[in-house]
Amino acid sequence: MNIKPGLKLPMVVTGASEETARRLAANDAAIKRLARMDSIELADEAPKASAQIVLDEATICLPLEGIIDFSAETARLAKEQGVLEKEIKQLTGKLGNEKFVANAPDEVVQENRNRLAAAEVKLEKVEAALKRLED
Questions:
Q1: Is 66 exposed, middle or buried (0-12, 13-18, 19+ CB in 10 A)?
Q2: Which of 9, 22, 27, 84 is paired with 123 by a 20 to 30 Å CA distance?
Q3: What is the percentage of the chain residues whose pLDDT exceeds 70?
Q4: Is the model's pLDDT at 2 over the cut of 80?
Q5: Entry pTM
């Protein structure tokens, strides 16, 4: 996502229990230093355009609006999607060719099957990331 490594982001925590809020407050300085956070805030709702992770009852959010160029990220992912779709089409064609499968060494055929499976998994992840950016 091309976030500068030294950039400190604010952390917004939603749905935190009283115990979690107490722990966050007690360990504020250490969390900010170790996680490279600018601040830690409690909120009722997740900020728009934020990366989120659920941890027990709480959701930790990193607001990314203004940090990431969403149109550039969408374009990058769309380009990667096209490359993966082309690779999948090529590998599917190759593995669908009976002559290739019959004449190629078993390790070459297996390598192509592994590459196809990996490309399909990666394509699913890229498509999910694109969907998240559209929402």
A1: exposed
A2: 9
A3: 98
A4: no
A5: 0.64
Give CA–CA dist 54/10, Å, rounded. 17
What is the per-residue burial (b if ≥16 Cβ within 10 Å, else e) of 9-44? bebbbbbbeeebeeebeeeeeebbeeeebeebeeee
Q: In this predicted model, which residue has the larger pLDDT, 24 or 133?
A: 24
Domain encompassing residue 47: 9-63
Question: Which secondary-structure segment (H or E) carries 43?
Answer: strand 37-43
- Does residue 32 sit within a domain? yes
> Which DSSP helix (H) or strand (E) runs through 38?
strand 37-43
Q: How many whole angstroms separate alpha carbon 93 and alpha carbon 98?
A: 10
Tell me how many domains the chain contains.
2
Find the mean pLDDT for residues 15-36. Answer: 95
